[in-house]
Amino acid sequence: MEATQTILVVDDEASNRLSMERILQREGYAVLSAANGAEGLALLRKESVALLLTDLKMPGMSGIELLKAARKLVPGVEVIVLTAYGTVETAVGAMKEGAYDFISKPLKRIELLNAVKNALEKQALSSENRRLRERLEAEGDRGIIGTSSSMRKVLELVSQVAPSSASVLIEGASGTGKELIAQAIHDLSPRRTRRFVKLSLAALPETLVESELFGYEAGAFTGAAGRREGRFELADGGSLFLDEVGEMSPALQVKLLRVLQEGEFERLGGTRTISVDVRIVAATNKNLEEEVAAKRFREDLYYRLNVIKIQLPPLCERGEDIPLLVNHFLRVYARKNERPFKAMSREAMELLMRHPWPGNVRELENTIERAVVLSLHDEIRPEDLPATLRGGMKTAARELCFPVGTPIREVELTLIRETLRYTDGDKNLAAHLLGINPRTIYRKLEEIGTDDQG
Ligand SMILES: Nc1ncnc2c1ncn2[C@@H]1O[C@H](COP(=O)(O)OP(=O)(O)OP(=O)(O)O)[C@@H](O)[C@H]1O
Ligand SMILES: [Mg+2]
């Protein structure tokens, strides 16, 4: 929990107020008190209050009114209401207005302390989440770009899981931003003051991966002159990013599983057991569940890694993010290459939005960097883009991409419309390509209405 959270007690009965104050203060809480709603609100305005404890029946402003006003004034404040015996309905009404809990009078010490403790825990959690979300949003412009609903979900999940130490598995095709997300999880976690250590498990021979992960003692193998710390030790207190985790050999999977289960290991050639506190973020461009089903990946290891899964959608499923990404990269690469900022012409942007981007954000990024460097005019034109993009419409048929669950009707209409675009409006040719009767095309076009010309 963070710094001391302040509790505000509001009750018109002095004896009640004092006894609550005493009980809470004795437990070490910081307590403020007020004899009526107006005084209470004044304190809420001045002080940073985490929890409001208010009597329901008070002269002047009622407890419910105070509750509503308080939640407007301080959206993060939690509220517990105190209710006299026999007025439980009012208390239920207060819960509907957003009170966290109610306590009936006469007060019981334990009941009060339990309710207060739970409410403060909830308050701390939600204010931490809010803080992280604000930070993530503020950093949006420098770091992770995306306002499409799928990316917003990803970012929401990132801010939710970052504070914990739970293992995170990031799945996504090549270039979708897995490493960027892994870094964000570390940067938003309490571990950010310690190291973010990376290791790719592909492209390295097994013995090398092992010595990289666990380190070695002098003389562990030929060439091991000195002692060396592995990535697990380097990441102690921080996070370890295991990239391409789907490429691990079965033997290595067993070794990794042991560290994850026990939090300890030995260096190669060493006997001393080393224990570490490391948060694992793993990434893969495979579908690990399928790898498990095909017996290529250990199920127990999968469950260890996959406490939380973040799935990064391919770029073609978040087309609305393309203009944002384009402008972001235009700025980044103008600065990097010390060139004046140039905007994307409308025609060029259209080509970018139409491309299927099999290489995802990385491919888009490279395309923009190249255009920034090559462009001779004061804006970027289609001729500054690779031929594959420009030729797209006439030479190569363009690929369409739909998220699972897209209504068939929508898929059908888009397919027809795009095929017509490809055939320059030739309905007979389009029908031929689609393997349907030209009359069907006419009928479907009537359904689409007039917007099929675009
Ligand atoms: N949402 C995004 N906003 C801004 N830049 C992004 C975004 N997603 C990816 N990038 C950039 O695209 C490039 C590729 O991202 P990253 O390396 O994280 O992808 P990856 O999924 O790890 O790819 P691979 O599987 O090929 O390793 C990086 O330069 C990254 O900064
Ligand atoms: Mg990567």
Q: Under CATH, the topology of the largest domain is which?
A: Rossmann fold
Helix content: 40-55%
Q: Return the average pLDDT rounded to an integer.
A: 88
Q: What would you call the shape? A: extended
Number of domains: 4
Number of strands: 16
Low-confidence segments, given as residue ranges, are: 450-454
Q: Spell out the CATH superfamily of the largest domain.
A: P-loop containing nucleotide triphosphate hydrolases
Top-tier CATH class of the largest domain: Alpha Beta
What does this structure look like?
There is one protein chain. Strand 1 (6-10), helix 1 and strand 2 form a beta-alpha-beta unit. The protein is built from 19 helices and 16 strands. Helices cover 47% and strands 15% of the residues. Helix 2 (37-46) runs parallel beside helix 3 (63-73) and helix 17 packs across helix 18 (427-434). It has four domains: 6-130, Rossmann fold (3-Layer(aba) Sandwich); 149-312, Rossmann fold (3-Layer(aba) Sandwich); 316-393, Helicase, Ruva Protein, domain 3 (Orthogonal Bundle); 408-452, Homeodomain-like (Arc Repressor Mutant, subunit A), CATH 1.10.10. With 454 residues, the protein is α/β, with parallel strands linked by helices. The strands form five sheets. A five-stranded parallel sheet has the order 2-1-3-4-5, sandwiched between helices. The chain has a five-stranded parallel sheet with strand order 7-10-13-6-14, sandwiched between helices. A two-stranded antiparallel sheet has the order 8-9. It has helices at residues 14-26, 37-46, 63-73, 88-96, 109-139, 149-161, 178-187, 206-214, 231-234, 250-262, 288-293, 299-305, 322-336, 346-354, 360-374, 387-390, 408-422, 427-434, 438-448; strands at residues 6-10, 30-34, 49-55, 78-83, 101-104, 168-172, 196-200, 215-216, 228-229, 239-243, 264-266, 273-275, 279-284, 308-312, 343-344, 379-380. The longest helix has 31 residues, at 109-139. Residues 178-179, 243 line the site of magnesium ion. Residues 144-146, 172, 174-180, 285, 325, 328, 361-362, 365 line the site of adenosine-5'-triphosphate.
